[in-house]
Amino acid sequence: ARGLLRPADLAGETVLVTAGPTREEIDPVRYISNYSSGKMGYAIAAAAARRGARVLLVSGPTCLPRPAVAEFIPVTSAVEMRDAVMNRVGEAGMVFKAAAVADYRPIRRAERKIKKGAGEAPLLELERNPDILAELGELNGSRLLIGFAAETDQLVAHAAAKLKAKNLDLIVANDVTREGAGFDVETNIVRLLYRDGRNLELPQMSKTALADRLLDEALEIKRQRSE
Ligand code: CTP
Ligand code: CA
């Protein structure tokens, strides 16, 4: 009901959101992935749509119901996510990169199920996936780029390094080891790091409330820029 009181302050804006994990296939029955549920990204997508934005949601595999967005673009692997994002980013004035992208993928996917043999255990050989957010950071334009950093230690140092390396406007950092934060829970405890060096810890809040707060932050950064 609270959402209904908000003005459509994102009307005319196209917001690209990535959410969920990626899956990197080993063979037809196995993959490498991570614990991302997609909840944070879906909450942002739903909140932006509620506030009048045209939302493009690029989503890895999740168990969540599809939110009411203009376009839902399902992907599986990091490479597919990169292609989807690069195809559509030109339309977006804001990007929220909430997806947990697998950093590595198996160098090859076996055509058939790998059978356990009598000999040595197989070694899984991996190669780097593209860093989608870093690629976005290299594009020109006035588009707002918001990244996420899930850390287990040295939260501020690690997140600040990512903010700089990927040329972001804002990074949303959370310590996944804290209770009430991180993967597959309804709330989050995050620290916001801005490009100008400011950093602000937000109290624990629902991912829905945080989604609206992050959209407020994005609008505020845009306003400051146009001054
Ligand atoms: N990201 C991305 N593409 C990748 C890896 C990460 O777009 N291949 C994005 C994530 O969506 C997130 C941000 O980069 O918004 C930070 O992701 P994270 O995994 O925390 O950082 P990495 O740069 O991958 O560093 P590391 O995993 O070593 O901490
Ligand atoms: Ca990573």
Sequence-ordered SSE layout with sheet pairings:
Elements: H1 2-5, E1 14-19, E2 24-27, E3 30-32, H2 39-50, E4 54-59, E5 71-74, H3 78-88, E6 94-97, E7 104-106, E8 126-128, H4 132-138, E9 144-151, H5 155-165, E10 170-175, E11 187-188, E12 190-194, E13 199-201, E14 205-206, H6 207-225
Parallel strand pairs: 1-4, 1-6, 4-5, 6-9, 9-10
Antiparallel strand pairs: 2-3, 7-8, 10-12, 11-14, 12-13
This protein binds cytidine-5'-triphosphate (CTP) and calcium ion.
Summarize the structure.
The protein has 227 residues and is of the alpha/beta class. It contains six helices and 14 strands.
In words, what does this structure look like?
By secondary structure, this protein is an alpha/beta fold. It is globular and about 65 Å long. 28% of the residues lie in helices and 26% in strands. The chain is built from 6 helices and 14 strands. The strands form 4 sheets. The chain has an 8-stranded mixed beta sheet, sandwiched between helices. α2 packs across α6. The protein has helices spanning 2-5, 39-50, 78-88, 132-138, 155-165, 207-225, and strands at residues 14-19, 24-27, 30-32, 54-59, 71-74, 94-97, 104-106, 126-128, 144-151, 170-175, 187-188, 190-194, 199-201, 205-206. It starts with a helix and ends with a helix. Cytidine-5'-triphosphate is lined by residues 78, 97, 99, 101, 103, 129, 131-133, 147-150, 162. The site of cytidine-5'-triphosphate has 14 residues, from α4 and β9. GO terms for molecular function: FMN binding; metal ion binding; phosphopantothenate--cysteine ligase activity; phosphopantothenoylcysteine decarboxylase activity. Residues 10-219 form the DNA/pantothenate metabolism flavoprotein C-terminal domain. Its cofactor is Mg(2+); FMN. CTP binds at residues 103, 113, 130-133, 148, 162, 166. It catalyses: (R)-4'-phosphopantothenate + L-cysteine + CTP = N-[(R)-4-phosphopantothenoyl]-L-cysteine + CMP + diphosphate + H(+); N-[(R)-4-phosphopantothenoyl]-L-cysteine + H(+) = (R)-4'-phosphopantetheine + CO2.
